[in-house]
Design a protein that fits this description.
Layout (H helix, E strand, L loop, with lengths): L10 E2 L13 H6 L4 E5 H6 L3 H6 L3 H5 L4 E5 L2 H9 L4 E5 L2 E5 L6 E4 L1 H11 L3 E3 L11 H26 L1 H5 L2 E6 L5 H14 L3 E4 L12 H8 L7 E4 L5 H10 L3 E2 L3 H8 L1 E4 L2 E4 L19 H5 L2 H9 L3 H20 L7
Parallel strand pairs: 1-11, 2-3, 7-8, 8-9, 9-10, 10-11
Antiparallel strand pairs: 4-5, 5-6, 12-13
Helix pairs in contact: 6-7, 7-9, 9-10, 12-15, 14-15
This protein binds one RNA strand through helix 5, helix 12 and helix 15.
Amino acid sequence: MDLDILKEKFFFMPDATRGAVRYLTTKQLEETGTEAIVTNTLHLLIHPGPDVIHQLGGIKKMMNWNGIVFTDSGGFQLFSLLHSKKWRGKVHENGATFKSPKQGNTYELTPEISIDTQMRIGSDVLVTLDDCRDTNLSRKEAEKSVERTLLWAIRCKEHFNREYGGTKKTGKLLTCVVQGANFPDLRSYCAKELVKIGFDGYNFGGYVVDRDGELVVDEMSAVIESVPRDTIRYAMGVGKPEDILMAAKIGFNLFDTVLVTRNARHGTVYTSEGVLRIKNSGMSLDKRPIDNSCNCECCKNYNRAYLHHMLKNGEATALTLLTIHNLTYYQTLIKGLTPIRP
RNA sequence: GCAGAGGUGGCGGAGCGGUCAAACGCAUCGGACUGUAAAUCCGACUCCUUCGGGAUACACUGGUUCAAAUCCAGUCCUCUGCA
């Protein structure tokens, strides 16, 4: 598999957190023009677990997916689930210890375990475990998060090389995450230190929008200015269509966000004329397709009124069709971007 | 016909003298969602408002009381037993 295209082209990766893009079959996923997906290390570590995935031949075989698979390291989940106290556990110098809320068993996620898990999942592109924190972080806390992220990145890389023989032997790529909260100089410092260690890609981590929902352009620019151009530059969690356009302009080439699929499920769809809310009463007799200029299965066969009716009445088919549409919209948007690199 | 139970906002259903424009569901109408605990969550939902309030409201009509969705009487309806 030629993974180097990930350093050249623009990609939008839908999130298949637990090894499935919600409400889509793999065939439907392919038909949206999707070439790469992101799965999640922490979710898959707990269910079904790395050993089961390994015994089943890896996530690609399980999904019957021939495209590219990214594995997110689990750093973001440690932040969003543990810091917010939704799960019980804590982050420490060595990684994190936490309990799964369902069975209550204790899990460890260290940089090494994250890499091992990603390997067992059968990922193409791995991500180093990072210490993701809140956006409005004090300078001191942000510095700590950067130091820890750097330390973990080194451990991940060493483990990947020592245990598996690195990219040379596995053919897999290893990317890292740049932290530094709201401080562009810290972002820049973190990126430069990571470049010294050397990775195939530099991912923008943390929160990508501020409290007003505005893309953190300065921080993103600081990172791009500090990393080589012939690498993966993945803006994690970006974003709204306009945010992707902006991030691409800044220099990022890889994107993912849950907005595409979640908004579809919640009835917010993207069109060439702006956002449309399918649940709104105005849709009840609207015989037009969601987007006239879209060729997806949803737009070719069904009108807004029918989708409105299904969504209002809990028919899961609507969730599938709207997800197909939104994802197709994103993939079309991405394919329309022109490479800015010389 | 006799006996019993009851009539509350679009619907179901709390409340049983003041803190009730009325809990809680559902429906309806908006909005949010950015490395997914999310087919979720938040708000509005009698009318008017210069957002401080104001005016009508708990089948209907009277009455008791400083005060009634809540107590009393009558009227009209509904349901359940027995004939």
